Amino acid sequence: MNQADITKLVSKLRIKVPPTHRRLRNPLGPEGRLNKLRKTVTGLIKYERIELNYNRADEARQYAERLISEAISHGDCHKPTMEIADFWLLEKELVHKLFKVLVPRFENSSSAFTKMYKAPKPAYARAIEKTILELKGNPYPSLTTRQPNNKLLLQNVLLDAAKYDYRQTKYAEIAEKMSTPEETKNPDS
Amino acid sequence: MSLVMRKSPIEYFNAAKWIIRRECRYLSNLPEVAENSEVVEDKPPKGRKPRFLNPTLQYRHVYPEFLPDPNPKFRNSLREKLERADMLKRRSQVDIPEFYVGTILAVTIADPHAQGKTNKFVGICIERKGCGLRAEFTLRNVIDHQGIEVRYELYDPTIQNIQVLRLEKRLDDKLFYLRDALPEYCTFPIDMDPEILPEGSPVPVNTVQVKLKPRPWLERWERQELKGVSNIEEHLKEKDRVRRELRKTPWEKFDLMKDYRKTIPIEDQTEIWGEVYNQLQQMRVSRKKMSKQRTFTAPKTQLG
Amino acid sequence: MLRNLLNRFKSVPSCGFHTSPCLNEVQLLTRLRVVDNSEIGKRAMAEGKPPKIICVYNKKRIGYIGDRVMVAIKGQKKKGILVGLKQTQNVKVPKFDSNNVVLIDDNGTPLGTRIHVPIPTILRTILKEKTHAKGADYTKLLSIATRFV
Fold first, then answer.
1. What phi, psi does A135 have (nearest 5°)?
2. Smallest Cα distance from B292 to chain A, Å
3. Per-residue pLDDT averaged across B143-170, rounded?
4. Cα gap B170→B168, rounded to integer Å
5. Interface with A, mutate which of B23, B48, B67, B169 (most A CBs under 10 A)
6. pLDDT per residue over A126-183, tens digit each?
7. Among residues 4-63 of chain A, which lie with CB inside 8 Å of chain B?
8. CB contact under 8 A, A9 and B266
9. What does the pLDDT average to over B78-99?
10. Could you give the ipTM of this predicted complex?
11. What residue ranges carry the coiled-coil annotation (chain B) (predicted)?
12. What are B181's strand-pairing partners?
């Protein structure tokens, strides 16, 4: 039973945090692990959408969320936060992006700052699970379709066409039936 | 033929909409961002300060055991709630004062083994650990040139009285190095008188730096970046300095998730403090009144 | 140079010895501190040859507070009672900075006349339980103690 650390105050993350960290095997140990994650976090902040292995993405996502939430809660005048940003962002112009672009973007958001999708895997192959990690509010087109009942989906288009064809044939049949009795009646009379 | 004819206009329309939306987004995004960045430079001192002004959060320094274990393995919201209620009940029975690591305390317990059935021990608090009802603290003193440490549970029903003799903090979180320090740094007379701080003054930090005995030591103090020790360097060899450099972990302070896993986040803390704040505050106020009454009565007896 | 050393250090697989803190158990050949004023004990401590345990009289062979031990002191075999331990103790039981022993003879009578360090109060109960009507009487030790904690 440990006492919680009371020297620091952190705001709660809006993502699920696993109870322990992943080790992300590295010959340099924990230092090498952080170096790996630094690259990923830098890439995420820079490109706003990246595709990578699941383990690393999930681990980097937590650090990115923490970095943004620290930046939001302390601002750019806080020295320790600045040092942390300096450590995590390998390209220094991204520090400006963090405080001037991302902080205003996420300041009033009530959900997580990042989003993670599972990427498609090649079928019948033993492949490592890939994911797509992105910052919310990025300028790219969204990866998911908003309406599940999109008319332009191929299945829906084909179904529509099939329905249309079926209806056309039905109308034709009805029209034929309408016309044939007249023909049959006429000779009787 | 009819198929193609029906589909194409909708498709074109949708594609056009998508393109327009995208372009609009691009167009709208860039100037927006630039505007925001200009605004933000002026804002921070005004807009962001109020987040940390929640006064109940300051209670975490005084009552750290009310916060649950940060390890999710040991979390159980119902148990924590029941424990907090029990802790408040115990606190209403016995005055558990505010104290920190480095404070000098006198603890009186009901001891079935002792002759007078009570046992009093005076010492400096060198460690506080545990959370909930299992919170513990350790006192250390040197009596008859023999270092003695006693560990007490904070919510032990046999504790009759906890008296703060000198309320202060030290430079470090744990004072285990006192075990290897010269005995005068943790020698306190058993009949020590309590020193009363003026009301409303902050808790003083004792900046005394202790001197360690020569090696062998119980732990490798040189690797722990202690602030309260003055003469570590005297006892080190070149080998130890090299090893200390090798073992340093400068990246650890940037490990944001490690910090996160050690703490209880603000949102959870406000919930907890909101639950216990009123009762703790009431207890504090009533204790203050009691102590004032006592101080008023004490001079009368002296006069008489 | 340091970086170099560091790299070399890291290429070596992790060291084999374990780094968990020691238990400070009192067991065979542990050196003790005699805390009474018996002649033999005083001389042994003054010469810098503290007694060492050659037997702990319990089934686990690890000495806890109040246990009877046999010590080798200045070439002689003497019995003693552990009255203070370095090991982590239960709540409310004091932990001492040294492993303390009081020398006794076979009847439980202490060899000295005074103990010059504090004695844990829990010893009262423990020693009373160990004393039997016809056997050795260990409670005499309590009467020569100067201070209890």
1. -80, 145
2. 31
3. 95
4. 7
5. B48
6. 888 999 999 999 999 988 877 767 788 898 899 999 999 999 999 999 999 999 876 6
7. 4-6, 8-13, 17, 19-21, 30-31, 34, 62-63
8. yes
9. 95
10. 0.85
11. none
12. B212
d(CA C31, CA C34): 10
CA distances from A8 to A87, B258, C59 (A): 19, 12, 49
Question: Which of C3, C9, C10 to probe by mutation at the A interface, max A CB count within 10 Å?
Answer: C10
pLDDT on residue B1: 41
Whether B259 and A31 lie within 8 Å, measured CB to CB: no
pLDDT of residue A149: 77
Residues in contact with C36: Cβ distance below 8 Å, sequence separation at least 6, in sequence order? C102, C103, C110, C111, C112, C113, C114, C115, C116, C144
* pLDDT at residue B44, as a whole number: 41
Contact yes or no for B265 and A11 at CB 8 A: yes
List Cα–Cα distances, A162 to A156, B12, B33, in angstroms: 10, 21, 48
Which two three-digit tokens encode residue C5? Answer: 């050393």
The two three-digit tokens of residue C75, written as one number: 């070439």
- Smallest CA–CA distance, residue C21 to chain B, in Å, is 9
User: Burial letters for B174-184: b for 16+ Cβ neighbours within 10 Å, e otherwise?
Assistant: ebbbbbbbeee
Are B212 and B231 within 8 A, CB to CB? yes
Q: Is the pLDDT of residue B115 over 50?
A: yes
Report the Cα–Cα distance between both ends of chain C, in Å, rounded: 53
pLDDT band at residue A109 under the 50/70/90 scheme:
very high
Cβ contacts below 8 Å, chain A against chain C, sum to 3
Closest residue of B to A67, CA-based?
Answer: B256
Strands C33-34 and C100-104: parallel
Contacts of B113 in chain C (CB under 8 A): 121-125
Residue A6 token pair: 């009371």
Cα C81 from chain centre: 8
Phi, psi of B204 (to 5 degrees): -70, 150
Task: DSSP letter for C102, please.
Answer: E
Q: What tokens does B132 get?
A: 């909930």
- Predicted confidence at residue B296, as pLDDT, reads 56
CA dist B259 and B253 (Å) reads: 8
The tokens for A105 are 């973007």
Nearest to B153 among C91, C98, C118 (CB): C91
- Cβ–Cβ under 8 Å, residues A13 and A61: no
Q: Which CATH architecture has domain B55-212?
A: Roll (2.30)
> What confidence tens digit (pLDDT) does each residue in C121-132 have?
999 999 999 888
Dump pLDDT digits (tens) for B33-76: 333 433 333 444 444 444 556 888 889 999 999 999 999 999 99
